[in-house]
Amino acid sequence: MSEMTYRDALNLALKEEMRRDPTVVVWGEDVALYEGSFKVTRGLVAEFGEERVKDTPISENTIVGVTIGAAMGGLRPVAELMTVNFALLAMDQIVNHMSKIRSMFGGQTNLPLVVRMPGGGGSQLAAQHSQSLETFFMHCPGLRLVYPATPADAKGLLKSAIRDNNPVIFLEHELLYNSKGEVPEDPEFLVPIGKSEVKRSGDQVTIVAYARMTVLALQAAEDLAKEGISCEVLDLRSLAPLDDEGIMASIRKTGRAVVVEECWRTCGLGAEISSRIFENCFDILQAPVQRVSGLDVPMPYSREIEKICIPRKETIVQAVKEVMQGKF
Amino acid sequence: METKLRMVLPDQELLKLYEQMFLSREFEESCAEQYTKGHITGFLHLYSGQEAVAVGATAGLHRDDYILSAYREHAQAIVRGAEPKRVMAELFGKATGLCKGKGGSMHLFDPAINFMGGYAIVGGQFPISVGLAFASRYRGEDRVTACFFGDGAVNQGTFHESLNWARLWELPVLFICENNFYGIGTEVHRSSALASIHRRTCGYDIPSEKVDGMDVIAVYKAVKHAAEKVRESGLPYFIEAATYRFRGHSMADPGKYRSAAEHELWKSRDPIPGYAKRLLEEGITTREALDAIEARCKATVEEAVVFAEQSPWPEESEVWEDIYV
Q1: Any chain B CB within 8 A of the CB of A59?
Q2: Are residues A31 and A175 in the same domain?
Q3: B198 belongs to a structural domain
Q4: Is residue A190 part of a domain?
């Protein structure tokens, strides 16, 4: 194990997989000479050269389409979209092509590709650069979607995503790039796609979270422990497929649930997960499931009003207390 | 002055072009009949009239070259080598179809013959073609990617993004625009500021030319030459083939936006009888030999229909298959 940042863990995953497999190529806006807007691709062009690490035009839909074609042609491309917000320009290739090509062509081709997208709010980047669009991708069959919370998961999930023969959308939280954690050095360390992880064990209430929401949930659980409330924090890690088994196992243990989502509340993943909990665990639930969500508003710029639009430790603590008092 | 056919290809190859065009027409007209009978449903975009483009272009490419197209692609798939009976079964929605009945008319795909798909979002195949061409170059394969599309696709963002990209990365893509002058019911000059489509590539420094898409030999020569240039230079090239569809955009379209006079003019340039006449005039073949070819094509299409009719429907459990590896 060695301590490193989420950014460096992602960088190491890319380097290890590129060393391991010559068909892995990386491209995106500013990923080569500029080494990435968030510096996740630092050092890649120096080690692997400009045929494997390529700058692209600002043409997001075509970035994804070229990635699809390259995967169909026998490569394992890893594309970077500068942020998830720009993925909206690529929704034609993501939804109409990437997610459907395998099934509509009768399973005759695989698309072993990864599209990386930094995302999330909280940096005062205003309405067009602060979105959490994970639910948009979850809604579409045919995609894998992962969103790590820790440096170790960032490394292990990106390596799994690159080795996976399905198209994987890999979300990275912009506010986690500098977060640090212990990361296994083993180049065969992989985190399975589709498996959640209990990041803190508890027995009174489950906080279901992902990415930066997991970090906040762990902070909330720490505070709540001091007040005698024992929280289990379940980090989803993969949003598609959802780990129903892991979610339900935790709820069956605690009997209560709070789902934390950074995305908008309406039709958000919290609604989906709450519904699945009600469908599968209604018999043992001791209180209605609570959601903590991003507010249903375009993100404002000003710090003082931006902060209330995104779940915080305090709002999670509040929701846990409500669910502890809640009854049917 | 037209080139003598024997200067272009050996007799057998010349007759093969005729057979492929005739088979394509027979297939499409049979599809129309099966649609009317309710055996083919959904969208059905027929290729009748445009055969010289698919046939001439495919003959000008190598078997290893990738072909991608839009949703009027039955002929491209069949001419490249897809079994007509499996294409027909796909259109019927049967389990024996090329894509197990999951794609239908607009989404034929057969990697065994390097036919890399029919795409039904206008312009969707441009970037995918560029990506395939990159993969070929990266893997050191001697392969051209031929990307077919219609005149309606040239105002999509992906067209401009992909032309720019193919030139920027120096990729072996042969863009082939089948200009049939109508995007559904909108004539090309009503949607394109510059209706001379091949001239639009100058902004991307891609050489281009226009060819008579009703003349299979002209298309063959142009594509063969272009594909050689792409192969030698590793750079993209662009061909605009002027052609015409004898039917509406799809079976749902009676095509009333086109005048009878215009239609008749193009019908008089039908690529199939025109080419038959040349074959006979230049003594390449006899009427009897052409009759035999035509009978063979008709039999192939009839067999395809019988195969499709007798094939089973997909199992219900199939809906969950093939989505993920």
Answers
A1: yes
A2: yes
A3: yes
A4: no
Residue B313 falls inside a structural domain: no
Q: For residues A51 and B150, is the Cβ–Cβ distance under 8 A?
A: no
Both structure tokens of A209: 């979270």
CB contact under 8 A, B99 and A105: yes
Kindly report the backbone phi and psi dihedral angles of residue B184, in degrees, each rounded to the nearest multiple of 5, phi listed first.
50, -105
All residues of chain A having their beta carbon less than 8 Å from the beta carbon of residue B121 are 92, 96-97
Map tokens 């038959």 to a residue. Answer: B276
Helix residue ranges per DSSP H, A258-302: 269-281
Pairing of strands A180-183, A168-173: unpaired
Domain containing A271 equals 197-325
Tokens of A160: 């799994």
| DSSP assigned state of B67 | E
Nearest to B129 among A69, A105, A109 (CB): A69
Domain that holds residue B216: 5-307
Please list the pLDDT of chain B residue by residue as tens digits (325 residues): 567 999 999 999 999 999 999 999 999 999 999 999 999 999 999 999 999 999 999 999 999 999 999 999 999 999 999 999 999 999 999 999 999 999 999 999 999 999 999 999 999 999 999 999 999 999 999 999 999 999 999 999 999 999 999 999 999 999 999 999 999 999 999 999 999 999 999 999 999 999 999 999 999 999 999 999 999 999 999 999 999 999 999 988 988 899 999 999 999 999 999 999 999 999 999 999 999 999 999 999 999 999 999 999 999 999 999 999 9
Give me the residue label for tokens 């959802």.
Answer: A242
> Quick one: A178 and A94 in the same domain?
yes
Q: Does A75 contact chain B (CB < 8 Å)?
A: yes
CB atoms within 10 A of CB B69: 28
Cross-chain residue pair A65–B158, CB shorter than 8 Å: yes
Q: What is the pLDDT of residues A21-77, one digit of tens each?
A: 999 999 999 999 999 999 999 999 999 999 999 999 999 999 999 999 999 999 999
Counted across chains A and B, CB pairs separated by less than 8 A come out at: 135
Is A157 found in the same domain as A48?
yes
Cβ <8 Å between B102 and A103: yes
- 3-state secondary structure at position B310: helix
Tens digits of per-residue pLDDT, B81-138? 999 999 999 999 999 999 999 999 999 999 999 999 999 999 999 999 999 999 999 9
Task: Note whether A14 and A130 are same-domain residues.
Answer: yes
Closest CA to A111 of A172, A164, A54: A164
Q: Is residue B49 part of a domain?
A: yes
Chain A residues in contact with B97 (beta carbon < 8 A): 106
Task: Provide the domain count of chain A.
Answer: 2
Instruction: Measure the CA–CA gap between B71 and B251, rounded to whole angstroms.
Output: 13
Q: Which of B128, B167, B321, B325 to mutate to test the interface with A (most CBs of A within 10 A)?
A: B128
* ipTM associated with this complex: 0.97
- Same structural domain, A17 and A141: yes
Query: How many domains does one find in chain B?
Result: 1
- Cα–Cα distance between B278 and B280 in angstroms, integer? 5
Q: Please report whether residue A259 resides in a domain.
A: yes
- Prediction pTM value: 0.97
